[in-house]
Amino acid sequence: MEVYLDNSATTRPYDEVIEYMNEINKYMYGNPSSLHTKGIEAEKLVKKARETISESLGVSSREIYFTSGGTESINLAIRGFLEANPRLGNHIITTKIEHPATLEVFRYLEEKGYKVDYIGVDENGVVKLDELEEKINGNTALISVMMVNNETGSIQPVDDIAAIKNARKRDAALHVDAVQAYGKMQVLPYKQGIDMLSVSSHKIHGPKGTGALYVNRSLRIKPIIFGGGQESSLRSGTENVPGICGFGLAVEKTFDKIEENRLKVKKLYDLFCGLLKKEGVEEYKILSPHNGSPYILNISFPNIRAEVLLHHLEEKDIYVSTGSACSSRKKKLSHVLEAMSLKACDIEGAIRFSFSSFNNEEDIIYTVDALKEILPKIKIKRGGKR
Ligand code: PLP
C-alpha cells in the first residue's frame, strides 16, 4: 500500500490530465504562433486554458500570463514590476516565512541596493500586521506575501494587508504567492485588493513546469525573459501547450469540487489528529495553527530526528517531508519554524504531512499505526545516541 502524504511538494496528476496531455503531444503539436491550422488549433487550446484559469480567479483572461511555474511567476511579478516602476521608491517588503522563490529574489534585490524589510510572524505563523503597518513608508514600492505557508499551512491575512497597504501607500503593488492556496480556498484578486498573484499547476494535480501570473491590467510590468514576444511580450518562449492545457483541465476538475475536496481533506486532518491522541502515539506537538489550511499538518516529534522518521516511513511506502521539500535537502533549520520562535528540538523533529483529495481514511489509519510502531524504536535516548 502506497501512502502519498507529500502533496504540498507536488501532487499526482489526474489521469484525465495525463491522457489529455498525451493526446495534445501526439496530435495537436502545433506552435500557437504558426499561421496554419495546426498553429491555430494550438492557439485555441491555450486560449481555452487561459479562460479557465481567469474564470477560476474571477479576473479577465487578458490579465493571465503563462509561465514555467510558481517560481517564475513570482520572479516575474517582483522583478518585472520594480523594473517598470523605478520612481515608486527603493523599499520593498516581504515576510520571514516566504518560500525561497520569493526570499531569494528579495535577497538578490537587497544586493542590488533595495532596502528590504522582512516582517515577522506570531507563534501561529501569521504575519504581524502592526509591524507591517509601521514599515510601509513613502518609498515602499512593493509588498510580497504568501497566502498559505507551505510548511505549516498558516493562512495570511491578505485582505487586511491590502487594506493597510492602500491606506499607507496606495500605488505600491501587492503581490501574493498563492501557490499553496489556489484550488484549496477562495482566491479572488479583485475582491481582495491583490495586484499580482502567482499560481502553480503541479500542486493541484496538474503537470509540473507550468504556472500562471495574474497582473491587474492597470499595472505596468516589464518582462524578465526576452524573445519572440509570446504572452503579450511579457513572457517570451514557445508556449508549453500540453502543460498549459493540462493545467487548464486540472483547474476545471479541482474547482468543480473545491468545497467537497476541502471538507474531505479537513476530515482526514481531524482524523489524523484524533488518532494520534487516541492511539497514545509517543510525545508529539502539532505545529500547524488550528485555523490553518487543512491540506498541511506539521507535527513535531521532539525526541526524534525528522529525517530518520521520514526514511522509516518510506520503508513502509509512506511519503512525507521534513519542513518543506524545496529546502529539505539543505541541513539548515526551517526558517519558517524559526520565525515562529520554536525551540530547536521542536524544529529538528518536524514532519510535514500534506494531503490531497486523492487520500482516504485508510491512508491516515495506516500512517498513524506506522508512527506508533516506529517512534519508540528511533527515540533519542537522554545523554546518548539513538
Ligand atoms: N511558493 C510556494 C508557497 C510553494 O510551496 C512553492 C513550491 O513548493 C513555490 C512557490 C514554487 O512553485 P513551483 O514549484 O511551481 O516553482
Topology:
Layout: E1 3-4, H1 15-27, H2 37-57, E2 64-67, H3 70-84, E3 91-95, H4 100-111, E4 115-119, H5 129-135, E5 140-146, H6 158-168, E6 173-177, H7 189-192, E7 196-200, E8 211-215, H8 241-256, H9 258-278, E9 285-286, E10 296-300, H10 306-315, E11 318-319, E12 321-322, H11 335-339, H12 344-348, E13 350-354, H13 361-378
Parallel strand pairs: 1-11, 3-4, 3-5, 5-6, 6-7
Antiparallel strand pairs: 2-8, 7-8, 9-10, 10-13, 12-13
Helix pairs in contact: 1-8, 2-8, 3-4, 9-13, 10-13
Main features:
386 residues, alpha/beta, globular, binds pyridoxal-5'-phosphate
Describe the model.
The protein is of the alpha/beta class and 386 residues long. It is built from 13 helices and 13 strands. The protein has helices at 15-27, 37-57, 70-84, 100-111, 129-135, 158-168, 189-192, 241-256, 258-278, 306-315, 335-339, 344-348, 361-378; strands at residues 3-4, 64-67, 91-95, 115-119, 140-146, 173-177, 196-200, 211-215, 285-286, 296-300, 318-319, 321-322, 350-354. The strands form 3 sheets. Strands 2-8-7-6-5-3-4 form a 7-stranded mixed sheet, with helices on both faces. A 4-stranded antiparallel sheet has the order 9-10-13-12. Strand 5, helix 6 (158-168) and strand 6 form a beta-alpha-beta unit. Helix 2 (37-57) runs parallel beside helix 8 (241-256). The longest helix is centred in the N-terminal third of the chain and has 21 residues, at 37-57. The protein starts with a strand and ends in an 8-residue tail after the last helix. The mean pLDDT is 95. The site of pyridoxal-5'-phosphate has 13 residues, from helix 3.
